[in-house]
Amino acid sequence: MEIVATQDLDVRLSLDLYRGMLQLRDFELKVQELYRAGMLPGFVHLYVGEEAVAVGVCASLKRYDLVYSTHRGHGHALAKGVTGREVMAELWGKQTGCSGGRGGSMHMFAPEYGFMGTNGIVGGGIPLATGAALAAQLRNSGQVAVSFFGDGAVNSGSFHESLNIASVWNLPVVFACENNLYATEMAFHRATKNTGVASRGVAYNMPSVEVNGSDVHECFRTGREAIDRARSGGGPTLIEFKTYRFLGHHEGDPGTEYRTKDEVESWKRRCPIKAFRDKMISSKLASERDFEQIQLETDAWLEDAVQFSKSSPDPDPSTVLDFC
Amino acid sequence: MESEIVMPQLGLTMTEGSVNSWLKQPGEHVKKGEMLFTVSTDKVEMEVESTGSVFLNPLVDLNTLVSVGTVIAVLTDQAGQTGITRQTSTNGQTSPFIQQPPRTAESKTATADSTETTGRGGIPTSPRARSLAKRLGVNLAEITPASGTRIVEADVQAHYDRSTSRSSEPVSIARRITAERTSQSFERAPHFYLGRLVNAGKLVRLREALQSPAERNLGFKITYTDFLLRALAIALREEPAVNAYWGDGGVVARSTIDVGFAAQTEKGLLVPVIFNAGLLGLFAIASQRKELSDKAREGKLQLQDLQGGSATLSNLGTYGIDYFQAILNPPQSVILASGAIAKRPVVMGDRVEAADTLNLSLSADHRVLDGVAAAKFMAALARMIEDPLELLV
Amino acid sequence: MREITYGEAGVEALREEMARDSSIVYIGQGIGPRGGNFRQTRGLWKEFGDHRLRDTGICELGETGVAIGAAMNGCRAVVDEVFLDFILEAMTQVVQQAATIHYLSNGKIKVPVVIRGAMGSVRNAGAQHAHSFYSWFAHTPGLKVVVPATPRDCKGLFKTALRQDTPVLFIEHKALYNIKEAVPTEEYLIPFGEASVRRSGKDATLVAVGRMVHVALEAAAALDRDGISVEVIDPRTIAPLDRKTIVDSVRKTGRLAIVDEAPSMCGFSAEVIAFACEQALDSMDAPPRRICSLHAPNPFSPVLEDQMLPTSTKVAHEIRQLIAA
Questions:
Q1: pTM to 2 decimals?
Q2: Span C196-324: which CATH code?
Q3: CB C282 to CB B127 under 8 A?
Q4: Is the residue at B95 inside a domain?
Q5: How many structural domains comprise chain B?
Q6: Which chains form contacts with chain A, at 3 or more CB pairs under 8 Å?
């Protein structure tokens, strides 16, 4: 697909989008490495392959807009502006993590960036995002709330009730479904007879759209449209991003017991980062040099995050009952 | 080196006593033979000698009944701590001759804890009761709970109140002891009563006649009590069945004739006993009577002055009483209650005349005596009072 | 002083707080124009309108999550489950989200949400409309639990609840909405963590919650005629809990009983006995007793439900046993 760069996006923005995706990719791969080396407590669900969605959507968000994320949320956090240091330190359980080490991967909170939490409960953040949007409407704050969730959440009561409330009250919320075709080991087509997530929005009389989640420009465009709609009082939108995770459900799950190798490979070939880079170069909107530069900067950024986290102190045990 | 001071056995029937006062301060040096504390028993208050060295802190509260043999203080030959802790439970015997009050088998397994964990017969005790018992120094083994199933705070408090003079109106030890003994006597001995009105004219004249000799020989006045005591002693010799008591499920004969008389003191009722009254003449009896009365008044009676007795005389004549019935003084089988000698109408021949008369009332223990035996005894008494010259020989 | 009902007291508290704090939003079923199934929001919609009193469909999970989300973004939210029994549809939002967010965010995010609902049995409402599982929420760290038993307390505690920065379960009792009491018109708040000694006594301590406070007082009056003096304590808030007042009372009386409409197993009554023994075992003169609902779902037939529920007769009987023990 041709990029209509001058009309839709400028190069700078595109390179920012690329940088964002690269940060997410390298970050997650580093987390995988650290986790396998036994450095990180708990467990992690990695975002590798889905970068275009988080980065594309969050690029249109202001700092005061709110994002509610999932168990697979490092990408959302970084894309929303939470620093690499704070996310990495949180994974390490350190005091300097965005949740002070209390949350870990699935309970990351950084309200100063509008990041209102990763969530260990599938669908847990959808009503919360809807409520945040209610507050925005009541207070006339101009905020938009984005709720990220996966295909695993769309058959739940949470999903249904939230979309219903959002539509009847016309709330400024964007429901962003990352349909990566699998909820843990359950293939979407085995969980439901209606494999069209976007079609569900129609049931609530809500604008709904399907998007190629591997194309960051598409993600950006669709995201922006929905966010603008919400911000201007047009109410909620349901976006289905068709995407794929290259790794298993969590680190420790090879992701191959319920997926064929061919399928995984075919999606890897459509890697959003590689595809975008190729497109930019072939359209002569950016050079190899640009990308190498971005890679170097990303390497430095990541290394800094790792070192920072490694050397940060653990939380003070005597604070265990604080905020309780 | 430490030595224990225990609640001493001060008399054959003593089972419990309480420390009235300490005569030395904790830490003070005490010489052997010096008085260390006073004890209240059911009969008397006594001083007890020290066995030497330095007296340490007392281990029991004042005026709290503890069993004979309980360790109540410790003497050491160096100032310092003792390893012996405050005890509220029976600590076991220190001498085979010390009589212990009867105990159930269970309480003999009491632990070395300073408080019992169960009361008599292993009855559960509430934590609150246990705390209070500890504070008050009460022995839980002595308590029977009101509910029957668990010893509670109220049981401990009631026991404590009963066993100390710490009720709302302070009660003297003597009062309490009298209350206990008379209750016991009245409950256990089946009393029956005989009364006789005797002609006291000759007695009145005899006493008068003997006043000067008494003053000269004894230095004090002879009283009707003396005559009555002599009469009792002789009557006991004549009717040996009366000189016995109920004990161990049978009649136990006494080997001596000892006669007691009720003496009211400030501290309460005491009954000093004249030993071998059967062998003493009238003046000798009077002498003894005087000495014991004086001692009683001065609070100087010893325990041995109060023990035993074949019979007791209670004379309320000086208080204007015509007639009364007394409660037996356990374990005695008879008590003679005499009223005032006064001029009363009597029948002489066919005429009613005024004469000095005396009402005698005998209470007797039906376990030991039947009516006839008591009546014979009474008859002897009556005879000797109506013809009192017999009392002089 | 004028007398108002428990229900009216709650409305008054809401009205005052909603007027004072424009960030308060109230959502639930039938709480708008209808004024609430128990008239618990009567008149408020007229005053504050659609924006601030929002009727929802039957979607407790969605409603509750929305309230929590709104509380996370600058509103003070109240979600009215109406029957507390219906909170069960939303338990994941209450326990997994509301209760944890303030703690897990290292104190950065406040969650000023009040979750309201009425517990307990009324008019043989039946098993699914009569639960008293308030102790589940006290058992969950991060939640405050308020159980007013009188109109005066309802108003004062509700106002305090509406000023908290972390989630509160405000649990009324269905059978109490119509009871009356003198309630001040002047502003007053009742702090959490302060029990109320409803009746002073010296022979036994009786702890009671919600409607059982009135059952306890009835029993205490009957026992008083027999010379048994019972101290009745209403904790008013289960979390935070005023243990001190209860322990002091046990130290005084030596005998403890609890009456609770919830079943005894793992309930609030067990908690009271646990801490009373921990702190005052040596003051106890008898083993503690509990008068609770029997361990069964609430049956419909009045005869069966009466058998199941605590009554003042049962309480008086147990207290007599407690004294005699």
A1: 0.69
A2: 3.40.50.920
A3: yes
A4: no
A5: 3
A6: C
